[in-house]
Design brief:
This protein has about 350 residues and is mainly α. The chain has 16 helices and two strands.
Amino acid sequence: MPHDGASPSGPELLGPLLRDVSRSFYLTLRVLPAALRVPVGLAYLLARAADTIADTQLLPPRRRLELLLAFRAQVHGPADDQQLHEIELALTEHQKDSSERLLLQALVPAVRLLNRLWEADRAEVRAVVTTLTQGMEMDLTTFPLETSGEVAALRNLEELERYIYLVAGCVGEFWTRITMAHTPALRGWDAGAMCACGVRFGKALQLTNVLRDCPRDLRIGRCYFPRDLLAKAGLRPEDLLKAENSARARPILCKLLLVALDHYREALRYTLAIPRRCVRLRLACLWPMLIGLPTLGQLARKPVWLEVERPVRVAQAFVNRMLVLSVPGVLSNAVVERWVSSHIQDVEQAALSKDEG
């Protein structure tokens, strides 16, 4: 049965609650065409709920995994309100963040809203949430307890690529299929080629998060920098806990920066493939690039990039200016290409100069 967006829980779920749990994504959701806001917003909300389950540190990883798998089964359906309430109750007493608590309390209405989507949209949302939870499962089974004081690393670059596909690249596939289904101007796209390009887009954004959050992740035992690359530099994962090892580890950072830039080039190609008249879709793709790439630029130029005290963050004034300039700029392929390419070149030059240095 098609949804009409009129469910009593719909406005609250995809309005204030979504805004509270992710202000940056809420900005993207608001600019999307109306027909896309419910399936895309709901997919994000369900994934965010799953992430909350996986990250509730007061429960042991094994218990979190049990609850995560139980939630995944409920998303697949058929859903059972009582089981969703049991998942909620098992977690809310351990959740101190008020917005996260409200998110867990919204599991039943969120799954009910899922079941009111068009069948095709419902299948897409279920598929992407399933894949995203596989990435969370990988976190829970690969890394030690956050408070153990131990650090584990992914094995190699292939495992890192697999991970960023599971937690973000798959969103590019979902985004492509759902936008094609709801946007007549995209019906001529080659779905396979554009899904592959969308995967690269998602990977670009997630690898940006991985690189930016490295110091913080290390302190909960998670090293996404491949163990084989660290070994070549004579480093162990736990060595990255020391900010003074920033220079020794910089060649690995720079290598991964260049990998991220290759993904961003595909993200640019993806954005330029969207017809210029689809202004909202273009903006939804352009904004993450124009925040992600300057983030990488700051990281590439930061000497002590392993310090945890002063994390890399794009200034709000920069974001505000970008939002204003992007509205007219997004109408021009030349402007978009020049804007994004200049940021790519900036990061590349910084990475190569630091690497050589």
